[in-house]
Every structure is written in structure tokens, then in C-alpha cells.
């Protein structure tokens, strides 16, 4: 996370320096006052540097509003997105970055805009007890960064984050599967555990998912399936606690079926 944040800050600083070289619900000290574009942009950058990203975002928005055809307006759009991100106003960060991309889709800073969108979703990922819509959105946005810009530093970081997102989504599937299992809904639980094995096999939840499939298969009266899952568990996680439990479970229920 520190690396991620540092990358975002460095890029934002570079954007701001490049630019300096060349309504409603707004904070009180950003009330409309007509100002020349350089003064307005410099004030926004100063507020950002001083740790007030909310005011900075509003001032960057003013740059575009007051000087929409100025070369500064394009930079201000992206700096506004970063400022909202720094203020943890992730929805506005996403909206600002998406607006930048809709107006300047081929701009050299487009990779950074896509990256900000992905980070803004990623920062909102909730625990596995809650709805995972944002987690799915984070995965889609991170995947888009990798797809569009595979050889960039943004893609390298996105790949790392995708591993964490996959683990999170697998955890949610496991949580639901265990809930179904506790209530005796064996088929529904089995489907959830299969999802983990098929879609998230590289995550930390795969071994338990195979054990749970062994359990649910026996509960469904499918001992051959239980043996199959226990065997896969043994082949991939031979020294794990989950394999030991699966082996004992199969032997207790179906002693005539060998787990190889």
C-alpha cells in the first residue's frame, strides 16, 4: 500500500509541476471568485501540498470551470481526480478520472487515470461479511489497467492487487458456502466451494475448499466424488491439516474407497 500511494503521489506531483510550468457543495473558501488561470491553479496545488486535498480538488475543478479552454484545464481535471483520491472521496475520484478519459482518451496521462480509478475501487474493498460489488469493480478496473498498459509500473502494481482481490472474493465464496453448509443446504454449499476451486485455485482458500467439497459430497451421498476431492487435496497439499482431515473423513465414511 505504501508503494501504491507513493506512485500515485509522485505522478500527481509531476502533473502539477508540468502544469505550473506552462457551485454547490464546495468548501467555503472556494466560493466563486474570478481569477486568472495560473493563480487559481497555483492556489489549488498549494492547498494540496499543505494537506488539504478537499479544498484542492474544488479549486482544480474551478480551473476547468473558469478556464475550460485553457491548456491548464486538462491538467486540472486529473489533479482534481488525484485530490479527491487523497481526500478518500473515492467516488468523486472515479468520476473525475472517468471524465478526464472521456474527454482525453488518447492522452499520455490516460494510464494514470485508469490507475486512479482502479485504486479508488481497491481502497473501498470491504470485509467478506459485506456485499462484494466494489471488490468486483476493483478487479475489473485493475484488469483493465493490465490489459491496456501491460508493460507499465501501473500494471505491475495492478497484478499484485489482483492477487489480493482474488483472495478476498474467494473468502466471500467460502463464507457463503460455510453458511449454507451449517444450515444443511449441501448442494448450494458444494457449488460455492466448487467456485473457489475452479476460479480461485491459487488463493489461500483452495485447500479448505477441497476439504469442504469432500464433506459436502459425502453429505450428498457421493462418496466417489468425496474421494476424488480428497485425492486432489492430497496431491496439492499433502502436508496440510485439511488433507489429514479429509483422509480421516473418507476413511470413516467409506473405508472401502482408497484415497490415493
Name some characteristics of this structure.
mainly alpha, 260 residues, 0% strand, 12 helices, Serine Threonine Protein Phosphatase 5, Tetratricopeptide repeat, elongated
Q: How would you sum up this structure, described in words?
A:
The protein is an all-alpha fold and 260 residues long. It has a domain of 124 residues: Serine Threonine Protein Phosphatase 5, Tetratricopeptide repeat, CATH 1.25.40.10. Helix 4 runs parallel beside helix 6, helix 6 packs antiparallel against helix 7 and helix 9 runs antiparallel to helix 10. The longest helix is centred in the middle third of the chain and has 30 residues. The protein is elongated.
CATH class of the domain at 1-124: Mainly Alpha
Q: Which shape, going by the Cα principal axes?
A: elongated
Task: Using the 3D structure, state the CATH architecture of the domain at 1-124.
Answer: Alpha Horseshoe
Please give the count of helices: 12
Distance between the termini: 43 Å
Classify the oligomer. Answer: single chain
User: Can you say what the CATH homologous superfamily of the domain at 1-124 is?
Assistant: Tetratricopeptide repeat domain
What percentage of amino acids are in beta strands? Answer: under 5%
Work out the number of β strands: 0
Helicity, in percent?
Answer: over 70%
CATH topology of the domain at 1-124: Serine Threonine Protein Phosphatase 5, Tetratricopeptide repeat
**Radius of gyration from CA coordinates:** 25 Å
Uncertain regions spanning at least 5 consecutive residues: 1-10, 16-25
Q: What is the average per-residue confidence, as pLDDT, rounded to a whole number?
A: 86
Order of SSEs, N→C?
HHHHHHHHHHHH
Structural class: mainly alpha
**Largest sheet entry:** none
